[in-house]
Amino acid sequence: MQAYFADPCDGDVVDNIYVIGSRIALSWGGGTPSAVSSVSYGKDDNSKKDLLDFAVDIPELDVDDTEEFQCNSEGNGSVAAGTAFFSGNPIDVVRGIKLQWESDYKSGHRLPLRVNRLYRSDVTELALYGKGWSEASLPSLAHNAENVISIAVQGLVYAFYYDGTNASPLNSLEHGATLELLASEWSFVLPGRFRARFVAGSQSALSYGRVIQVSNVTGDTLSYSYSNTTTRLPYRVAHSSGSQLNYNYQTLNVSCTGSECNKVVTSISTDQGTWDYNYDNNGRLTEVISPTGVKTGYMYDSSHRLIGRTNDDGIRVRWWGYDSNGRANLSRKYGNEEEVTVTYSSFYSSEFGRTVNQAQVNDEHGRVTNVIYADDALGVPRILKNQAVGDSSCPSAVAEFTYEPDTGRLASELTNGGVLATYTYDVYGFPISRTETASDIDTTQVTRSFHSQVWGKLDSETLRFDGQDQHRVNYTYCTANNSTCKVGLPTAMTVTDLVNGGSRTTSWNYTVNGNGRVTKVEEISPTNVKLTMEYNDAGLITRQSLNNDVQLQVLSYGAAGLPTSVQYENLYKVNTAYNNDGQPTQASYQMLDGSSTLTTTYEYNNLGQLVNVVRPSSQTTTGESFDYDQNGRLITRSLGTWVDEEPPLPPPPLPGCNPWEPTCFNEL
């Protein structure tokens, strides 16, 4: 998920903003710039990515790539998109709640099997993984007394009004989604992406609304099996490839309201092994054990709120705290590292002519950011202003926001640099223009159109500056599934210079196997450079070639999808071993002509921090060691005996995963 909002100091782009709310996505070039309803400060590098895809239009936020509010070398501060980021674990400061997203398992399929858990500190009822911990990957259909039907599928939530005959979207943001009652089931379709089927029939039946099957446009399916007609809890989820998730449940001796409300998951078997879940007498999740035996523990206060997380050695590595009103106000890592505190207040603002709320955030650098927010007419909290307080080394920074009253979509943002950005949308809620104006610069406008056959894909994008079109980008896509393409994959991108004339085109060719898996991608650039990437059935790269010259081959992968043997050109091969946390423990470099083999080992402490790198004596330095203070912060890095003036260059990095396939392509 990307946010394209100008930094008030230097115009940088900030990525991966955590926004919580009802189908909210702050994005430009991939989503809808929508309401800034809430902001989570920080990241949790132990959440295994996947944070908050339940609540946004763009699934799979990468929590490892969030940016901090900081000053650059010139002392320029930044606040972007109604938020500033701080390291630490995520807190929704607008709602005052602690959020914890855990992705235990995800298969390597185009439509993946998932095991996701979500913790919310404002939820104390028993859920599938104990108090406050809900299942976040199971599709659902809910039908209330007002005949509003809500669909939650793979990180997307849609709402419809059912008049007894037809189901109509409640607003224009539903991106073409349809819901139909077909015999004994509901059929939900999101064009160009997927279809989901749910049980219909009598609304009083416990099975009403439970998911039957989810399928995507390439024919992958997830089928859900139940032990009887009176349960909503599946015992099996099967992928069309044959892979399965098998669930086991336990009934806890804990009082709750509703049928099956005291049932929790005790184990889930996957193709990588079994995950186990343990609970205390209060129904709280206390321990998760991975298939490799790695343990993660959770700690709670007397109000059943999550206050800590422990690693495999039982060492507490995360702390969270709450104020007297139960609002999350503290987040820090092991040894007071990356501590963030939040203070909440309310006051009358003459600027906004109403009572507003404020969350004052103090980060680990001692900097203060004030987040001012209030409910809109729809009752949804919207951030009105973000103000980073300046100091001697970092000036202040401000960002202000307005919203469309009927939809809550972002209408404008104003930075303290005087740049005003305004947005317009089409009838489906897609952003079709972004216009920047300022008193001291010319007006910049980006206009967009969307493809008529491939839903949600850009057809063209035009940049206008000072009243004149500068360049246009046109896109073409596959519109059918066959052996050379799949629906929605780009086939060409043409950039045209509208001022000086001329254009350049980049094109892509594909090879698709009988299972609909992309096994080869060829990118042909305007300079006649051809980059070819080949993949196995799990979507993992096996070969990369440049103009038919092999640059690398991955000879083998481990069980966790980590490369264990890689050959670079025709020069040398690298064999790598890993520990249970996926960290490399040994790398052996073998020249293909047999002239030498060099082995490097890596050692870690009980917190998973690298402490030693040991290299052969024949290398330029025999190794490195790393020391940390009592707070777990790196304080010294020591190099071994130098033989030369420069350290050795690292081996060429392994390219990223297949952007068209499961490990990278997270949308359905």
Automatic annotation (TrEMBL):
All copies of domain DUF6531, residue ranges: 88-158
Taxonomic lineage from the root: Bacteria, Pseudomonadati, Pseudomonadota, Gammaproteobacteria, Cellvibrionales
Domain of life: Bacteria
Database matches in InterPro entries: DUF6531 (IPR045351), T6SS_VgrG/RHS (IPR050708), YD (IPR006530)
Annotated protein name in UniProt: YD repeat-containing protein
Pfam family, one: DUF6531
